[in-house]
Amino acid sequence: MVYQPYLLNIILVVVAYLLGSIPTSVWIGRIFYGIDIREHGSGNAGTTNTFRVLGVKAGIPVFLFDAFKGWAAVKLIYFSNYYIPASGDYINAQLLFGLAALLGHIFPIYVGFKGGKGVATLFGIVLGIHPYSALIAVGIFAISLVFSRYVSLSSMIAGFSFPVLIIVVFETTTISLIFFSMIIAVLLLLTHQKNIERLLNREESKLTIKKNPKSNPKNGT
Q1: What confidence score (pLDDT) does residue 189 get?
Q2: 68 in a domain, yes or no?
Q3: pLDDT in the model for residue 52
Q4: If pLDDT is split at 50, 70 and 90, which confidence band does 98 have?
């Protein structure tokens, strides 16, 4: 009986990883457009590249489901009655499940471990754990995107705002959540290294959304 919670956590971590591994953009591209999204545009299996290559009709469901993966992984905590809600251990377990889903999104087992950068999934994780800070971060992202039109820059700015919101605005005292918020900022830097280089060289593409993509685009733009 002592080991039952640990065994359950292992099972839920595996479930969270498999959930996060669902390659939404890859499957939508293959099923409805006959292409592998990773062979076009930026080569990234994420929301931004889906908008650019496949358009709004594909981009919106990709974003929503990728965010849902993170949110649903966090909510796997409901399958365990071992933790006291809002306690430190409760939040730690949520973060564990969320990180497993994020790893699944970045390294999806179903399609050769080549996935996206995880921004939408990160949003879902934060939304599930601390919804107020997530919604404020979305507002910051939207404002930055309106003025800059750089998705990468806006994502990094929103990511850096998260630890500020957690620590300064909401005065969170849960160490794991504070640490997680800092990891998000660092992780976004690591996954956007090429974008940072292009931004510094003024070569980064601004957001343009394809309205009527071809069913089988060949040029990769």
Answers
A1: 85
A2: yes
A3: 85
A4: very high
